[in-house]
UniProtKB/TrEMBL annotation:
Residues 342-436 form the M23ase beta-sheet core domain. The chain crosses the membrane at residues 55-80. Residues 1-14 have a biased composition (Basic residues). This is Peptidoglycan DD-metalloendopeptidase family protein. Its cofactor is Zn(2+). The lineage of its organism: Bacteria, Pseudomonadati, Pseudomonadota, Alphaproteobacteria, Hyphomicrobiales.
Length: 449
């Protein structure tokens, strides 16, 4: 082993002084020894000495210590290696499973979104198809409304020179004594084209959907169609009410005048018509609009027949302008004798030469001088009805001639027993004179609607 001292010395026996020392056998495997001095460390092994400086020595010691620590760490690592790997593998597996679960969730979400989009698109297409069918039905209704002819006045007596005048923009007002009621159709033409606006949404649904959303588009389309349908229903109701009111007034006038409807219809001349009989049928699945339109067509046909019948009833005024009577029907003081006398007609104030017009369709049965009537025209309207126009200054028709409502048959004059220019007008039933104002009031009633 090693020991520290100032010098390492060899000890000699006193008898060995002056001679060479004898060599002693040295063990071949002697253990190495190290000795320390003030300048370093000496390592002795098998008779050999190796000196180390302090720095090198401590480097060697540190290396040995580090190698020992590394060996201990390595041993510890291998001792716990299996647990670490197991935890790492478990962690990786957990992360992989979580990742796969997330991918599956996202795929399911994408599938649900895609299915929802497909379902929404299908629902949108179905709703849009329903809207288009409804729009087509509304357009058909608008066409049916537009095809209904306006009921024009029949046999109107208009003043000469005013036929070419521009029609007024407003609703025409009936004159005090008119020939027939003026039927004004409701403004259904506006509803005919309004239902075409939603076609834009059909042409470009995607742009509408992107700009306002599918629901907003459908709501706007439904709202637009609802407005069109309400206007169409209102227009149709107005037409039906107008026709029904007109028919009631016509029947009431004929009843008030004491005329026989069957006889009047039998006396009405028939124009050239014909064709096979095809009854009008209403479809079993017809809606409220179609049923209402069917009723309107039936009532309109009745109104047309009544118009033709009333064309033979003299309820119009024979002169144009404001009505002013100079003498009424009934007992009066005779203008020449001053004694009570029966006046069988109405005297209309008029100027010399004013046109006199026939008040209903008929046939001229008398045209010439007739005693106190002076120049007189008598027209037979059939069914016992006739009218007389007296004191004419001139006559414009001949016996046997058929005349139409409003046709000029002569001019106002003062012939016969007359004190001045005026028109003597009579209405007769079965040859007996009746008050013409009864017929004129019926004309006012018809014109009031």
């Amino acid at each position: 082993m090693s020991s520290r001292s100032g010098h390492h010395q060899k000890h000699h026996h006193p008898q060995d002084h002056g001679r060479s020392p004898a060599r002693r056998p040295v063990a071949q495997h002697a253990a190495p020894t190290a000795a320390a001095s003030g300048e370093g460390y000496t390592l002795v092994h098998a008779g050999k000495q190796v000196r180390f400086g302090p720095v090198v020595f401590w480097i060697a010691v540190g290396t040995v210590v580090l190698l020992g620590m590394w060996s201990a760490a390595t041993a510890t690592y291998f001792a716990f290696r299996d647990d670490v790997l197991t935890r790492l593998i478990a962690r990786q597996a957990e992360m992989q499973y979580a990742y796969e679960d997330r991918i599956s969730e996202l795929r399911a979400k994408v599938d649900r979104t895609t299915s929802r989009q497909l379902l929404d698109q299908e629902q949108f297409d179905q709703k849009l198809d329903q809207i288009m069918k409804r729009q087509s039905a509304l357009e058909s209704r608008a066409t049916a409304l537009g095809a209904m002819p306006d009921v024009a006045t029949t046999g109107s007596i208009k003043p000469q020179g005013r036929a070419d005048a521009a029609p007024s923009s407003g609703t025409p007002k009936p004159s005090p004594i008119s020939d027939t009621v003026i039927f004004v159709a409701p403004p259904d033409r506006e509803a005919r084209l309004e239902s075409r606006a939603p076609l834009i949404a059909k042409a470009q649904p995607n742009q509408f959907a992107k700009a306002q959303g599918v629901d907003n588009v459908l709501v706007r389309l439904q709202t637009s169609l609802d407005q069109v349908e309400r206007r169409q229903v209102a227009a149709l109701s107005s037409v039906e009410d107008g026709i029904e009111s007109r028919v009631r007034r016509m029947r009431g006038v004929i009843s008030d005048l004491g005329l026989n409807m069957a006889q009047l219809e039998a006396a009405t001349p028939r124009s050239g018509m014909g064709g096979p009989y095809v009854p009008v049928k209403l479809a079993p699945d017809a809606g409220a609009f179609e049923r209402q339109l069917y009723r309107i067509n039936i009532n309109r046909a009745q109104m047309q027949r009544l118009n033709q019948t009333l064309a033979l009833v003299p309820y119009r005024k024979p002169v144009v302008g404001e009505v002013e009577f100079t003498s009424g029907f009934g007992v009066r003081s005779d203008p020449f004798l001053g004694r009570p006398a029966m006046h069988t007609g109405l005297d209309f104030r008029a100027a010399q030469g004013d046109p006199v017009r026939v008040t209903a369709n008929g046939k001229v049965v008398s045209a010439g001088w007739a005693g106190g009537y002076g120049r007189m025209v008598e027209v037979d309207h059939g069914n016992g009805l006739s009218t007389r126009y007296g004191h004419l200054s001139e006559i414009g028709v001949k016996v046997g001639e058929y005349v139409k409502i409003g046709q000029v048959i002569g001019a106002v004059g003062s012939t016969g027993r007359s004190t001045g220019p005026h028109l003597h007008y009579e209405t007769r039933i079965d040859g007996e004179a009746v008050d013409p104002q009864k017929f004129l009031r019926a004309g006012v009633r018809l014109s009031a609607g």
